[in-house]
Amino acid sequence: MTSVKDWGTRLVFVALLAFIVAIPLVFRQQQEGPSIATAPADRLVIVSPHNEQIRYEFGRAFNRWRGQNGHPAVTFDWRTSGGTSDLRRMVLDQYTAAAKDSREEQGVGYDLFFGGGEYDHNKLAAGITIERDGQKQHIAIVEVPQLPPGLLDEAFPSPMIGGERLYHPEGKWIGTALSSFGIVYNRDVLAMLGLAEPQTWSDLSDLRYRGWIALADPAHSGSISATYNTILRRLGWEDGWKMLRRIYANARYFTSSASKVPVDVSAGEAAAGMCIDFYGRFQAGAVGADGRVGYVDPPFATAITADPISLLRGAPQQHTANQFIAWLLSEQGQQLWQLPRQIEGGPEKFALRRLPIRRDLYTSMKRARWSDRDVAPFDIARPFPRGMPNLFGTVAIISHAMAIDIHDDLINAWNAIVQSPNHPARDQMVTFFERMPEALTVRWPDHYLSRHWRDVLEEEEHPRHGEAAEVLDSFVRGITSRWQQRPDREIEDRLRWTLFFRDNYRQVVILARRDSG
User: What is the 3-state secondary structure (H, E, C) of 264-306?
Assistant: First the structure.
């Protein structure tokens, strides 16, 4: 016979089991936030790198709009396991597997890819290529959304901002917000280190920042890849990597989550870090009135780009997905990015502090209600010189080989240089520190272009403008085309370059240890 004590033990066990099972359901409901309908509803499955605040507020506001227009609430199923690059690779892999079984028309269970940058959405828009029936076939994995007539022209009087596209030329992705890239910093930590507030990228290369910079891994974060890409395109390949290498050497870590950077800066774990604008602005606002955290877009040294949404092929809820895209472009959806909490039309819990993409919202009357009233992206956007190639595809591989995979060696070399200001071999140490592999060295045809290529690119009427642009384009294509033709070469190049950089960093340390007498 079972004793009362045994029954009590069993009841406790059952209660604990029920509690454990319930926890994920509770958290999922909290993540979905707006999914509070009790009646049958559509279920939107959205792949997104967006943070919980954006997911909650846009889900809640969209369901409120649907309710006002006589529609049932939507259940939001957010798929968020990773940064933009991780999520993009996941989606491509799943469509590739489906296409090999001729199931691409059915999709893979996702409706939308919401958030990230142009690079990743262009990768989705380009589709996939598989071998089927002995022949290579191109498979599209995104569809052009069906929007109300005139909405695209209303939202985008011009398709560009500062030379960057606001939507795909064929409409395969649509920008929903604007992103810029900058520096988040902690004023208390800066004061402790005797540093002024950073204003531009080069400030982060100051040796006093050693161990106090927070950075994200570009292999996982599309936003931080875009940040590093911006620095390279503004400064040029050689000078850009010189600066990035010093910033990498000052880094405390490289996190796989870009949202961790502003949080750690706010907590005093780092003095400063690079991040996408809304992460920095949100964290600055979250700490309240003490002003501990600041954020700055380096003037004329950042880029302003679209944060897109793409409709995925075979979307189970295609009609609702199209409706969500249209609502995102409406004035009501756009204002949610900037309105403060708990005012009419604004967010309920979180001030998102992102930049709307519709130009017609940037009026003094509308901005008077915003969290960031002085933002004017369409006025300050500065295009890159015509002919400056996009270097996004090179950033993650080179950053890993140069710094992330051998961060201790990089730090040791940097410390050796910093601690040996009067060493007789210091110039040689710096040379080893800055060396690039042959394959990562731009070869200009003569001394003039080597020294003046940037001025030549800035002046489109210069007689050698086309030549300078072709040198840079051929150089970048020479790197990336190898990987496109044979993906295994990417791993080979990364390993070879890692060994190259490691050996040079170790040579710096060896030189520093030599008797200076």
Answer: HHHCCCCCEEEEEHHHHHHHHHHCHHHCCEEEECCCCCCCCEE
